[in-house]
Amino acid sequence: MTIDLGRVGLWVPLRLWIRQGARLPETAAEVDELGFGAIWLGNGPTIMEVGGALLAATRRIAVATGIVNIWTHPSAAAVAREYRRLATAHPDRLLLGLGNGPREAGQWRLSPYDRMAAYLDELDASGEPAGDRVLAAVGPRMLALAAARSAGAHPFLTTPEHTQQARAVLGAGPLLAPELKVVLAADPAGARATARQALRFYLDKRGYSTNLRRMGFTEEDLTGGGSDRLVDAVVARGDVGDVLRRIDEFHQAGADHVALQVLTEDTDSPDPDRQRLPLEQYRRLAVALYGGGDA
Q: What domain of life does the UniProt record list for this protein's source (predicted)?
């Protein structure tokens, strides 16, 4: 893979960039200067369009789709065309992340694995390089597919223990870039409340809940936005030092890159007018990781 993601990146819901509006180029340029290696974009209809705007506004940082949901973006050929356009304009800075995200009811009759394999066939036929894509793989079968037909895996909502297992399946070569949720708050109860505000969305989805059960969590852990045990396992909370130690746990377990999804009361507020990028938290993390400047 020719794209350099660095050791740490930022995973950002697409809607938070969209809400930047005319401020997006200025904000993206600031994030670029902070030193993070990549911006990962959550799925949405305009994911490639927003990715292009981020690439145009920055000079160094990579942009990765985390993920293009193959159920809501069913045309692999269309995705490949847009990828080629952006990758040509911004060489070695765009990583195509693909995954089996939430589906419509009628799509549950289809095998996620078989659909992903067919999607990859379509991308290959369109000329999209396998080395410039990763899969949102968590289970052993999908991880093996990621190792065979992409640059690696981008697991979501996992733990260092899962990362160690994923590395064993992938082998030494492929990229392993797990997402990690972060709450910079000293009060455990308040931090967990902020985390649950975001986790409720994911715990209601069959794909995420299935993987968490595979990781040993129970139905009780998955209710009410997650038990304390689950929240503490999948969310790094505390001060900056606590978060850095959790990032190191993922790296020690075999991760090449960790994509931080920073959560605040505002990032997942039910009031859209309050939703905003956690820039203050990005700045605090960047100071600890990079001294506040380029990596």
A: Bacteria
